[in-house]
Amino acid sequence: MKILAQLRSGQLLGTKRLKLACGLKEFPREIFTLAESLEVLDMTDNQLHTLPDDFGKLKNLKILFLSNNLFTEVPTVLSQCPNLSMIGFRNNNIDTLAENALPLSTRWLILTDNVLTSLPESMGALKYLQKCMLSGNQLTHLPRSMKHCENLELLRIAVNAFTELPKMLLDLPKLSWLAYGGNPFCAKHPDCDTPLKVVDWGSLNIQEVLGEGASGLISKAIYEGKEVAVKVFKGDITSDGLPEEEMDINISMGHHDHLVDVLARVTGHPEGKDVLMLELIPSTFFNLGLPPTLETCSRDVYPEDFSLALSQSIKILKGMADAAVHMHERGIMHGDFYAHNIMIDKEANNILGDFGGASYYEPKEVKVRHALERLEVRAFGCLVEEMLLLSQDDRSDPQRRAKLELLRDACLNEKNEERPLFKTIYQHLLKALV
User: Fold this and answer.
1) How far, CA to CA in Å, does 229 sit from each of 22, 210, 353?
2) b or e along 377-392 (b: 16 or more beta carbons within 10 Å of the residue's beta carbon)?
3) Is 97:74 a contact under the CB 8 Å cutoff?
4) DSSP code of 375?
5) How do residues 121-142 score in pLDDT, each as one tens digit?
6) Are the C-beta atoms of 263 and 204 separated by less than 8 Å?
7) Helix (H/G/I), strand (E/B), else coil: 294
8) Strand pairing partners for 350?
9) 353 with 287: CB under 8 angstroms?
10) pTM over 0.90
11) Which of 108, 138, 102, 93 is nearest to 120 (CA)?
């Protein structure tokens, strides 16, 4: 309420960012006094259901968050905002996205956890769309026009009503991060019922919180004198899908040196939540990258002072290619193959985690299986590109660097069928980049 009072008194003139979360039922018209400067408007956690017809006065607005409100349709007035690139309507009750409701400048669209049954053909006109979050709706298909979304890199369509995978996605030239689990066409992984050791919650000595993601909270714990990690799943749908799907994938993954091992199921949580006991990654490890920002949209960022030796970059890429071979042999696509989900230590030992966006695939057609794998190969190509940038000061071995650049280009090929598979990539890294 303090910020609202400041807005009404004129104290916020010239501000670029405004956040209002105070149970608003109507759009405060005083916001228009910021029309010349406002770039980010966050009105998450209110009770709004409409926007004013002259919303387009906010001509400099770039980012709009209206999650956890009461909208039943995406306001068509958004199309009047020429610079609006990121739009968030998570967890409303939206059942309608009209033709041409979105501005052509849209890069990042979040419609997770609504009740949409279809999307308009005008989606195909969004030439700048890079990131599209549609999990937790009732979609049965995507508009054919989306084959023209040539800049789309990340797509979430998990927990919808698709009876088959939209095959046109396999032809998108830049699609790299795809999550589709929890749809009717998705089978459970045959190994998801692998018997695991069962541990009672009461036998765990829970220590400090290590981190929190979209799907759950991870804490350190002591079990029978040993340090372990414990992940308590929230149970709510995330932008990537359902936590139980993530649990199934974790269990189905099996052991690999570059993946986080599942040690046991945990029963008896006081709130009845699903819990897994995991291998504890040593405290000497840290995240290789940081998640994308509002500005970078679909690409990770790194601290300015962070760099790697070329040999370290190659070691990380070898480990990740090895892990990818293991996953795809089991029909598992990670879906979030990013540096911010890779943990490394000072010696560049590396572990891939966070399977919240993972999907199991079992298409009988080898062509489709390979096409899905090659989506993730493009994500790997982005990682190769970033490792080259992080080791750009290391010119000690121009020959190996040139080979890595060729691998990057092969993985980023805009024609899916011309990208190498992970087995080939791994063999190349072993032989040519020793």
Assistant:
1) 37, 8, 12
2) bbbbbbbbbbbbebbe
3) yes
4) H
5) 999 999 999 999 999 999 999 9
6) no
7) coil
8) 344
9) no
10) yes
11) 102
